[in-house]
Amino acid sequence: MRQRRRRILTTALGLATGLILTKPAVAISTIRFAAVAFDAFPVFDPQPVATLAETLFPGQGANLTNAWRVRQFEYTWLRSLSNRYADFMQVTDDALIFAARSNKLELTTDKRSQLLNAYSALKTWPDVIPVLRILKDRGVNLAFLSNFSPKMLHGCMQAAGISGLFDHVLSTDAARTYKPDPRAYQLGVDAFKRRREEILFVAFAGWDAAGAKAFGYPTFWVNRLGLPPEELGVLPDATGRTLMDLLSFLDS
Predict the structure, then answer these.
(1) N or C: which end of the chain has fewer CB within 10 A?
(2) Does one domain contain both 235 and 127?
(3) Count of domains forming the chain
């Protein structure tokens, strides 16, 4: 009798242990923010634009791309300061024309269209979609808060297959200004109807991380280029190289 009881207890214990070991883990969200707002470039990879520029202008693509990128953002700031707003696609076009002329490159109508259209069909960085899906599964509200025009944002989202992952697609075009103008960052507060302290902003550029932090957003800088922080008197709450680092920060 004792041996039989011992066998029954041993079998029951083995079954219970097996259930414990094989039971799927349940993800428990420890994220301490109500929402996460992304700039476009932590999500979308702009490198194909540079690759296309090199294809169209062999040996000159890097010079064109660098001049184009710098002038692109300088024009947004100058237009904001001078109250002469134009949307980001127009700014991008103007900057491309200037960059081509400054590098003495012949920018044909076809090459110009190819380069501009590339900005509306960007795909994501490899680490992005898995992290976005994890956040979405955990019930975190997601948004873009970008200088991109609405057409550019929706075009990239469609090209990347992520249209269903975002609750809000916020272009600074709605405020007719550009980051780091506080009116641009305010769009996130208005859309989520949350205090700015409850919304984590995810930046790609150091200046954007500084601008968002100065506005009052908790800020994570996805420093994919490994650059030093800007000397603007404010620092992001945390920095990483990928969205996996962002996920670790959210769970910490």
Answers:
(1) N
(2) yes
(3) 2
Q: State pLDDT tens for residues 14-59.
A: 333 332 233 223 233 456 899 999 999 999 999 999 999 999 999 9
* Range(s) of the domain holding residue 195: 35-45+122-251
Plot region of 229 (φ>0 → left; ψ -120 to 50 → alpha; else → beta): beta
Query: Is 2 within a domain?
Result: no
In the chain, alpha helices (H): 2-22, 47-56, 61-82, 88-102, 109-118, 128-137, 150-160, 182-192, 206-215, 243-251
Q: Which of 39, 127, 181, 208 is catalytic?
A: 39
Q: How far is residue 244 CA from its own chain's centroid?
A: 13
In a domain, 5, yes or no: no
Structure tokens at 210: 């500084």
Amino acid residing at 3 = Q
Q: Do 114 and 140 lie in a common domain?
A: no
Q: Pick out the chain residues at pLDDT < 70.
A: 1-31
